[in-house]
Amino acid sequence: MEEPRSDATSEKEQVAEEAAFALTGMTCAACAAVIEKTVSRLPGVEAVNVNLASEKMTASFDPAVVAVREIVEAVERAGYGAAPLEEASSAPGAVSEAEDVQRAAQREHERRQQRLLVFSAALSVPLFLISMVPPFMETVPRALAALLERVFGGMWDPMMVAKYLGFVLATPVQLIAGRQFYRGFWHALKQRTGNMDTLIAIGTSAAYLYSTAATFVPALENEPVFFETAALLITFVLLGKLLEARAKGRTGNAIRKLMGLQAKTARVVRDGAEVDLPIEQVVPGDLIVVRPGEKVPVDGVVVEGRSSVDESMLTGESIPVEKNPGDAVIGATVNKLGSFTMRATKVGRDTMLAQIVRLVEQAQGSKAPVQRFADRISAIFVPAVLAAAAMTFLVWLLIVPRFADPGLYAEVTPFVKALLAGTAVVVIACPCALGLATPTAIMVGTGKGAELGVLFKTAEALERLEKVDAVVFDKTGTLTLGKPQVTRTLAFGISDDELLRLAASLERASEHPLADAVVERARSRGLALDKPDSFEAVPGRGVAGSVEGVRVVCGTRKLLAEEGIDLSRAEASVEAFEDSGETVLLVAVDGRLAGLIAVADTIKPESREVVRLLESSGREVYMITGDNARTARAIAEQAGIDPKRVLAEVMPERKASEVARLQDEGRVVAMVGDGINDTPALAQADVGIAMGAGTDVALEAGDVVLVRNDLRDVVSAFELSKATMRKIRQNFVWALGYNTLGIPVAALGLLRPEIAGAAMALSSVSVVTSSLMLKRFKPSVR
Ligand code: ADP
Ligand code: MG
């Protein structure tokens, strides 16, 4: 049994390639599991994820070992269809192309299913009439018997004629419309698993094969048949699948809507003339004219003209935003009344729209941890159900007849009763709705989030957010506007302007918001700034360097103390300023304290309300900052944060360990920051929430990205997480409720198999419909 195979090609160093595929033919969670298993067994495949709701698969594999073609073939061998989605995550244009491929495949599949449904209904309905509805039950077989006697002569028993007719009508349904269930059954069997097809195939075959035997085996001639059960069951299941597919298609609407936002052309200035170019030909640096009512084609910066732009489609912000030269504009937003010229900065897959589409796609394709619960149940369900059905059958066959009132068997034999009860158990117990409970809710939930400008990067983040009990806000730029302004200066021995000029000359080199405030104030006073000869930024402390040959240091007390500068004469003023919420920058020139610059950042107008709402939902709210304790406390007070929960003077690199400390105390922590100097803390937190996707950093950082720079969206994110998780739990109840209630009823012989089939189909439809209700979600604040 030795296999002389060299696996030398699958060495570690290869870079895995990612590919996405559109899948067809899946009927339930077990099918998804079969495909996952099949593909992951291919050599060279590192990871596979199949999403039942979006009917997509992503695989990462080593292209040197396995080709996309082979992956497709493996899926086909397992009995399903796969089509590679090329460039699935690039520009919106390419994404929509891939989407088209998938939609075409789905539509084709749907049309085929529709034809099969009509076919099987056309045969099942007459079959139902002649077997269950009294006037037809009597007249049709009798008339047919008379006709046959006239044509062929001899004696025709109407009861036997009814049986033959049943066989003639039911056989095409069983073999043609029902073939897909046999196929699925067979493929699952090869993988030694079971799925919905297993149960449907077994259930309908039991009814059909028995009835066929009762028709043609002379010894069973007096037994009744129930061809209609098998045929109706198949019809109901097909109907349910079709309704489910329709509803499922709508769960993915959000992405389609996003992709449809992109402009098709742009009016570009080329060689001095304005030309309309397809969007794909726009390159960074192009000057683009945007006229009133037009879409901004790509991301860029306004260079001339002014207008207001409706950004609601990306940010959820309904008030149009003023745009002046120098302001950033985002592709796919809509220009209102003015017109302007912009310079393209990001095109194609780099635009914010493309990035958002990618994020939402990723989230919708990812698996929520709760789904493991459903997967586990699905895995044991099929064998358990078959065992329960066999038990039911045996009890009805061997035990019940001994005790039952003989009247029970006036119409049917114990065997038939047993067969019907067993079949009903098989059918009602199918866990097909269970597999849809999580992914459909995640798709609608993340889609709704995208509409609101609340982007969840993974299903896991959506799930975990609900469990968060401590929310840590970064101060600058998150709780505050992040645009601090100089409020007052206090100079010792030099003029105030000289103090500002020296500090600002140094701060010019820093990118900190505080530095901007100092430079801004110096400029507005018309002071001429110098370039520093040398410059050093001390993160979390301040800046130091040499201006006009003198050493200037500007920053915290600590920074100046380290320089050995005597701060005693400033103590009282510093404390007073800090108590009023101002940040004090101490400035030393040539080794001596030269003055103070007080800077204040205003808290965002919504901060207080957001803190209150989070606390009233039972969460502890913290503030973390590198600023000094006194200023921090004053700001916290304005925001309504408990002073005990203020973490001040935390160096940027220590923020993550403060988050970790809260986690060690047993809290589930969400960190809200701007992603500029708090990326490690965002990563450390159980859920990192990055504000203001206008900056690229924020789109990269965190598990949740808030597109608007509005803190109320933090509350919306929590609410959406809660609503989605509640929906998932509800779906589990819908899905399992049918099964758990239905099994005993079926086992007691009180449920006809075809009714069980209808109930089962209904349970899938109701799960998907219930997920779609999430579209009505409205955040409470905005
Ligand atoms: P935050 O946590 O509020 O974002 P930082 O960690 O960036 O604050 O900075 C902490 C403190 O360090 C500031 O409050 C300020 O006192 C000082 N500081 C940082 N950068 C500068 C700078 N460029 N100029 C002066 N002071 C600075
Ligand atoms: Mg900050």
Task: Give a nutshell description of this structure.
This protein is α+β, with helices and mostly antiparallel strands. The structure holds adenosine-5'-diphosphate and magnesium ion.
Can you describe this structure?
There is one protein chain. 51% of the residues lie in helices and 18% in strands. It is elongated and about 130 Å long. Strands 5, 6, 7, 8, 9, 10, 11 and 12 form an eight-stranded antiparallel beta sheet that branches. The protein is α+β, with helices and mostly antiparallel strands. Helix 3 packs antiparallel against helix 5 (158-177). The model is unreliable at 1-13 (pLDDT under 50). Bound molecules: adenosine-5'-diphosphate (ADP) and magnesium ion.
Oligomeric assembly: single chain
What proportion of the residues form beta strands (DSSP E)? 15-25%
Give the biggest beta sheet: 8 strands, antiparallel
Q: What ligands can be seen in this structure?
A: adenosine-5'-diphosphate, magnesium ion
Shape: elongated
Query: What's the helical proportion of residues?
Result: 40-55%
Rg estimate, integer Å: 35 Å
| Overall strand count | 25
Q: How far is the first residue's CA from the last residue's CA?
A: 68 Å
Structural class: alpha+beta
**Helical segment count:** 27
Low-confidence stretches: 1-13
Task: Name the average pLDDT.
Answer: 87
Q: Main traits of this protein?
A:
alpha+beta; eight-stranded antiparallel sheet; seven-stranded mixed sheet; binds adenosine-5'-diphosphate; binds magnesium ion
